[in-house]
Amino acid sequence: xxxxxxxxxxxxxxxxxxxxxxxxxxxxxxxxxxxxxxxxxxxxxxxxxxxxxxxxxxxxxxxxxxxxxxxxxxxxxxxxxxxxxxxxxxxxxxxxxxxxxxxxxxxxxxxxxxxxxxxxxxxxxxxxxxxxxxxxxxxxxxxxxxxxxxxxxxxxxxxxxxxxxxxxxxxxxxxxxxxxxxxxxxxxxxxxxxxxxxxxxxxxxxxxxxxxxxxxxxxxxxxxxxxxxxxxxxxxxxxxxxxxxxxxxxxxxxxxxxxxxxxxxxxxxxxxxxxxxxxxxxxxxxxxxxxxxxxxxxxxxxxxxxxxxxxxxxxxxxxxxxxxxxxxxxxxxxxxxxxxxxxxxxxxxxxxxxxxxxxxxxxxxxxxxxxxxxxxxxxxxxxxxxxxxxxxxxxxxxxxxxxxxxxxxxxxxxxxxxxxxxxxxxxxxxxxxxxxxxxxxxxxxxxxxxxxxxxxxxxxxxxxxxxxxxxxxxxxxxxxxxxxxxxxxxxxxxxxxxxxxxxxxxxxxxxxxxxxxxxxxxxxxxxxxxxxxxxxxxxxxxxxxxxxxxxxxxxxxxxxxxxxxxxxxxxxxxxxxxxxxxxxxxxxxxxxxxxxxxxxxxxxxxxxx
Length: 609
Ligand code: AGP
Prior knowledge:
By secondary structure, the protein is α/β, with parallel strands linked by helices. It contains 19 helices and 25 strands.
C-alpha cells in the first residue's frame, strides 16, 4: 500500500507532486507529505489525514523548488499521525525518503543505528532507511542507497533525495511497484502510471532488484549491484480521462457504468469474426499442455477471489477439470498439492497484491504452469506468470472493485470455452450458443444500469439497517459473496453471504422481523430449492428482495420485491446479477454519507502480507 511520486525537472515540483498524489490517493489516504529541494535546502511538509489537508498547508506556505518526492500513506507500522507520515529523514535533515512496503528487519537496524547515536522520532519502519542511508553516505548517494538496501529485508519501492546531490533522485524497487516516467528535461517516479500520465506517456517499468537514478536530463537504470541495464521504453496508449471521473460523482459509479465497454474490450478481439470460436492467441499453452492439465487451482484475494469462485463453476462445467479456488494468503501457507500437471490461475486487478504474488511464486517453485488474469499490463503478476489474459477494463481507481471483477468473469468464460474447444467437452453448437450469449452481455448490462433508480430506492431503505443477508445457490452463492463484500466494504453495513441451503444449519437463528435478505435466484435448475429457502426466511419475518431473470414468475410470488435481469444462460448470469449488487452498495454508502471511493481502513492495492 501507500503511493509514492517523485519529480526532477524545471517546473514547480510541489504542484506536480500533489497532482500525482491525488491520482495515488486510492492506495492509502491516512496521511500525506512531500519533500522539496528549496533554496534553503531540503524541506519537508507532512500532515495526518487526507491529502487536501496537506494541500491547504502548502497553499498557505508553498515549497518552491524543481525537484521533490511525495507520499500518501496507508499505515502499517505506527498509527496515522503527522510524525509517522512520510517523507522521513535522518537527524541531519539532509536525506529524505518515501517508501511503499515493509522493512521486516527494521527493529535490528534501528537498534544498531541507535547505538551509533541516531535518534528516531517516529514509530515507522521507514525511518530506519533514511538513517541508514545517512550512516552509509560517503559522497555518493547511489552507492549509499545500494549499501543500505543490501542491509534491508522486506518489500520496498523507494524515492530518495539528499541535499548533498540536488541533481539526483534515486528510486529503488523490491517487491513493491514502481515506474519511471521519462519526459523532456524532466523525469518522474510513481507507484503507478496514472500518477505521471499527465506529463509523459513514456515509462520504464522497474523490475524487482533494480534501481534508477534520475536527473533532469536522463534516467539510468541499474541493478542494486550497480550494473547498468538497457530497457525498452513502454509507451502508454490509454488516455488520462479514463483515469478521471468524467462527470460522475465518484470513480466507483463511473467504473460501474464503464462495464459494458470493459466487457466488449475484454472479449472482442478474442472471438472469431464468425462468432463460433474463442481465440486466445496470447496463451502459449499447446493443445497437448491443455490435455495434460489434471487439476486447476485458482488463487486470489478479495473480489478477485470471488471472481475465482465463479471461475471454478465455469471451468468445471465447461472443461470437466477439477478446480479448487483458494484465498492467496491461505494457499501459500497450506502446502498445497501442486504437481507439474496443475495449472495455477492467479487473478489480480492490480497484479501487485503481495499475497497473490507470493502464491504465484510458490506455484512456480513447485513446477506448476501459471496463468495470470490481470488488469495491469507490465504488473509483477503479468511479468512473472507463464501466460497472461489481460482484462481490458482500463484503470480502476475506486477501492471497491467493480469493472475489474466483471472483466475477470469474462476472462474466465473465454478461458473455459477455450479449454472446451480443445478438450471437446461440449459440442460446437454449445460453444456457439455461449458466445452468442456472451456478446449480448454488454447491452444487457446497459439495460440493468437504466434501472439504477429502483436499486437506489431500495439501497436508501436498507441503509438504516445494521445487518443484512445475501443468499443463493451455485453460481448465485458465488455472486452473493461478492455482493456482501461490496456492501461491507463501502457502506459499513454488516452482511453475510450464505449458500441458501446452508442457512437452516445455524444462521437462520439470526433472521428476525424486518431483516433484509437479498436472494439471488438466477440459476433456473435450482430455483425451486431456492424458493423453499426464501419461504424459510419469510416465515421468520425477513424482508426479501429477489434478484431473478426475466420470465420467472415463481420468484416474484414468494418475495417482497424483485429486481429482474435480462435473460441469459445460467452460466453467464453472474456477469449480470452482480451489477444491481454493486449499485446497491454504492447507493447505500452514499445514503450513509460515507466516502465511497475511499472507504475507511482500506487501500486499493495491498502490497503487504
Ligand atoms: C475489492 O473491492 C477489494 N477492494 C479487494 O478485495 C481487492 O479485490 C483485493 O485486494 C485484490 O486486489 P487485486 O485484484 O488487485 O489483487
